[in-house]
Hints:
- By secondary structure, the protein is α/β, with parallel strands linked by helices.
- It contains 7 helices and 14 strands.
- The strands form 3 sheets. A 7-stranded mixed sheet has the order 1-2-3-4-5-6-7, covered by helices on one side. A 5-stranded mixed sheet has the order 8-9-10-13-14, with no helix packed on it.
- Helix 6 (210-220) runs antiparallel to helix 7.
- It binds zinc ion (ZN).
- Zinc ion binds next to helix 2.
Amino acid sequence: MKLTIESIDVGRGSEVHHVYTDHVNWTLLRDDDGITLIDAGYPGHADLVVDSIRMIGGTPEAVVAGLLTHAHVDHIGGLAKLAGRYGFPVYTDEIEVAHARRKRLEQAGPLDIARMAYRPRAISWLVEVLPLGVLSRAGVDDAQGVAAGVPLDLPGRPVLVPSHGHTSGHAAFLVADGRGLVSGDALITGHRVSGMTGPQRIPRGFDHDRAEAAQALIGFTHLDSDLLLPGHGPFMRVSVAKAAEQALSQE
Ligand SMILES: [Zn+2]
């Protein structure tokens, strides 16, 4: 499996690394206090996440905490494995906690995926993600909620931005002193099922509440960030506000 790392030097010994793979991305925030890992791919990506940490010169033991944009298997799967292996806590939006603990499940099941099969790319996507663990239901039993809108006392000082809709408690994270937005699946720049490039919404059928997800995008149009670190698709140096407008204008 191939990965591409885009590194941003924030200054004062702080770095942001966006790790891109063909299927899903994660982000590493590193400073003198250690590493914050935001999302960690499918269960089958756990070792690749460790590789990416070593590629930036870190160690998995230096991970202080995991942050979760949302509890879909392609974001929580690797995080559940690594949190168990290395013993770090996992934090997310207060509303997403029950989803992360699997008290609630908003994930597409095999039937939902079958309904998407009319899309020409959906079948080849499914064949690729099955071995990564797309049908896994593993969660993080002790995931906890954190406050929104204030810098968290974690490496990289991320700020949780509620952006509900893709899941009930989906969150984005401002990083690099607000210059960057880790947008999760609220705003993406590519997806195997869409085949489009550039800022866009996740394909229909993956959102829990499409209308609420549009409201989250409207929220992004008020941000000042110029680095977009999406959950799917490549990193982009682009006005996040303009990218959100572009995604909204496509439907
Ligand atoms: Zn996703």
